[in-house]
C-alpha cells in the first residue's frame, strides 16, 4: 500500500542560508475560471498542487508540482502533457506564455513592460485539449523528500534516463487519477524538454503500455543524434544569416529577400559547398579557404578576417559578441533579437545573456502572483525558475532513436517540430538536421512536420508567433486524431 505522508520536511537552500520548509506531498487546490478563445467563452477548472513520486516500497521520494487545466469531464478529450527544459527549468515558460489560458503581459515583440502580470490568452489550445504542466524535481515548487540527514538520491532523478523513468511513472499515476486513459495523448517539450518527451514517448509505450498520438518538439536539442566536426561547424551558418538579416547586417541584395528565401540559399551553400570544404581541415586549398571565408562573411555580416582567424570555425560566442559591435551591442543567445550592453567591446563572449535577463524580468513576478492569487496555491517554498539538478548524467542519450522506435511501434503517432529562426542555442537548421536523422530510412517523412517562426527560442513571446504557433498546434492535434474506428496499422 502506498504511504501518503501528510507533511514532508525538506531543506530549501538559497545561496547563503537554508531553512526547513514543510509541504504536503499529495494535496491540490481546484479553482474555476473562464477564457475567451477565438471568440468563444470557455469555462474550465484549474488544479494545482503536488502529486508524489514513489519508490519501489511505496514511500514518497518527491512531490511534483503540476497545474492541470480541463474543460468539462470528458474522459476521451485530448490530453497535452507539457514540459520545459534546462534540464533544471520549471514549466513556467510554456505554461504562462504559450499554450495555457493566461499569457504574460509583455510587448507585442516579447519585451518586458510594467505593470508586471498576465492576461487572457486568446490563442490557448485549451479549446481542443486539456493540458497539464509538470515541474520535475527541484524545479518550480517540486522537491525531493530528504532523509534524516538532509540527503536524497540524486541519481534517481538527475540524468537523461533516470528523468524519463520516474516521470513516466508519475504520468501513469496522473492519467489514472484523472481518468484519462481513453484520451488521445500528446507530449510537448521545449529545449531540453524535447529530449525528455522523446524518451518519454518510448518509455510510456514500452513500460506503461500508454500509446501517444503526437509529440511536439519546441526548439529541439540534438536528441543524441551526432553532428560533430565539419557538420556541426557548418550548421551554424544558416542561423548566423538569419540573425544578421534581422539586424540589417547583410548586403542590400540579401536584405531585400524574404528571410526564408535567403535561408534556402544559405542552406544550399552550407550543404553543397561548406561541409565538403571544412572536411579537408588544414589541407584545404588556400584559395578555396579564402573563398569560403568571403562567402561566410557575405551570409553572416561578420568580417572575413574573423573567419580566417578562427580557421573558418566561428564560435557562437564570437558571433553574439561581434555582429553588432559597431553599434555598441551584443545579441542574445536564445533569441538574437534581444540586445545586450557589455562593459568592454573587447573579449570573446557577451557579459550576459540579454534575452534571459529580459524573460526573467517578466516571468518571475507573474508566475508567483498567478499561482498565489488566481490559482489560490499557498506555499512557502521558493518557485525555482531554474533549480539545482546537478550533477546531471547526460549519457547514454539515445532519445532521438527512442522517438523513432516509438513512432515505428505506433503507426498513428505524428511528430511536429517548432523552431525560431533567431534562436542561437537550438538553431532552426540543427532542428531540421535532427528531423532529417530521426529516421534515416526515410519511411516516416510524412509523419514529421516542421514549422518555423520569425522569433527565437520561445517563439511564442512574439504575439504574431503566439497566434501562429498555437494555430499550428491546434491543427496538429486535430489532424493527428485517427478516424473513428479506423484500424491503426501499416
TrEMBL record:
Matches recorded under InterPro entries: AB_hydrolase_fold (IPR029058), Peptidase_S10 (IPR001563)
Highest taxon in the source lineage: Bacteria
Segments forming a coiled coil: none
GO molecular-function term, one example from the UniProt record: serine-type carboxypeptidase activity
GO biological process, one term: proteolysis
Signal sequence segment: 1-18
Keywords noted in UniProt: Carboxypeptidase, Glycoprotein, Hydrolase, Protease, Signal
Protein name: Carboxypeptidase C (Cathepsin A)
Gene source species: Psychroflexus sediminis
Amino acid at each position: 500500500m502506498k504511504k501518503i505522508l501528510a507533511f514532508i520536511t525538506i531543506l530549501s537552500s538559497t545561496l547563503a542560508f537554508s531553512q526547513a520548509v514543510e509541504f504536503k506531498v499529495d494535496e491540490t487546490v481546484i479553482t474555476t475560471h473562464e477564457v475567451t478563445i477565438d471568440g468563444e467563452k470557455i469555462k474550465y477548472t484549474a488544479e494545482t498542487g503536488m502529486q508524489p513520486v514513489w519508490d519501489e516500497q511505496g514511500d514518497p521520494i518527491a512531490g511534483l508540482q503540476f497545474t492541470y487545466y480541463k474543460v468539462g469531464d470528458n474522459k476521451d478529450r485530448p490530453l497535452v502533457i507539457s514540459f520545459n527544459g534546462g534540464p533544471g527549468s520549471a514549466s513556467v515558460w510554456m505554461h504562462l506564455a504559450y499554450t495555457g489560458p493566461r499569457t504574460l503581459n509583455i510587448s507585442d515583440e516579447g519585451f518586458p513592460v510594467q505593470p508586471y502580470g498576465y492576461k487572457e490568452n486568446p490563442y490557448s489550445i485549451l479549446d481542443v485539449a486539456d493540458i497539464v504542466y509538470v515541474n520535475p524535481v527541484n524545479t518550480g515548487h517540486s522537491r525531493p523528500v530528504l532523509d534524516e540527514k538532509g540527503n536524497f538520491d540524486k541519481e534517481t532523478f538527475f540524468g537523461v534516463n533516470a528523468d524519463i523513468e520516474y516521470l513516466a511513472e508519475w504520468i501513469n499515476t496522473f492519467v489514472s487519477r484523472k481518468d484519462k486513459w481513453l484520451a488521445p495523448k500528446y507530449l510537448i517539450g521545449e529545449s531540453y524538454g524535447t529530449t525528455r518527451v522523446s524518451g518519454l514517448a518510448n518509455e510510456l509505450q514500452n513500460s506503461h503500455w500508454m500509446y501517444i498520438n503526437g509529440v511536439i518538439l519546441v526548439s529541439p536539442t540534438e536528441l543524441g543524434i551526432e553532428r560533430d566536426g565539419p557538420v556541426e561547424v557548418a550548421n551554424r551558418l544558416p542561423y548566423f544569416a538569419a540573425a544578421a538579416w534581422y539586424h540589417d547586417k547583410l548586403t542590400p541584395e540579401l536584405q531585400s529577400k524574404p528571410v526564408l528565401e535567403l535561408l534556402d540559399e544559405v542552406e544550399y551553400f552550407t550543404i553543397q559547398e561548406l561541409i565538403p570544404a571544412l572536411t579537408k581541415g588544414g589541407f584545404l586549398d588556400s584559395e578555396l579557404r579564402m573563398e569560403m571565408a568571403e562567402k561566410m562573411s557575405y551570409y553572416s555580416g561578420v568580417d572575413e578576417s574573423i573567419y580566417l582567424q578562427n580557421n573558418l570555425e566561428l564560435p557562437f560566442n564570437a558571433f553574439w559578441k561581434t555582429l553588432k559591435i559597431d553599434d555598441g551591442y551584443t545579441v542574445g543567445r536564445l533569441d538574437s533579437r534581444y540586445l545586450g550592453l557589455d562593459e568592454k567591446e573587447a573579449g570573446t563572449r557577451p557579459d550576459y545573456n540579454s534575452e534571459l535577463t529580459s524573460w526573467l524580468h517578466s516571468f518571475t513576478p507573474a508566475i508567483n502572483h498567478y499561482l498565489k492569487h488566481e490559482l489560490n496555491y499557498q506555499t512557502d517554498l521558493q518557485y525555482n525558475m531554474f533549480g539545482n539538478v546537478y550533477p546531471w548524467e547526460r549519457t547514454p542519450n539515445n532519445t532521438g532513436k527512442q522517438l523513432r522506435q516509438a513512432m515505428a511501434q505506433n503507426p498513428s503517432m505524428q511528430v511536429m517540430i517548432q523552431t525560431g529562426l533567431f534562436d542561437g542555442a537550438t538553431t532552426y537548421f540543427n532542428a531540421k538536421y535532427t528531423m532529417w536523422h530521426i529516421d534515416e530510412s526515410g519511411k516516416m517523412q510524412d509523419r514529421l512536420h516542421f514549422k518555423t517562426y520569425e522569433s527565437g527560442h520561445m517563439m511564442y513571446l512574439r504575439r504574431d508567433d503566439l497566434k501562429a504557433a498555437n494555430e499550428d498546434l491546434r491543427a496538429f492535434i486535430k489532424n493527428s486524431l485517427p478516424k473513428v474506428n479506423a484500424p491503426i496499422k501499416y
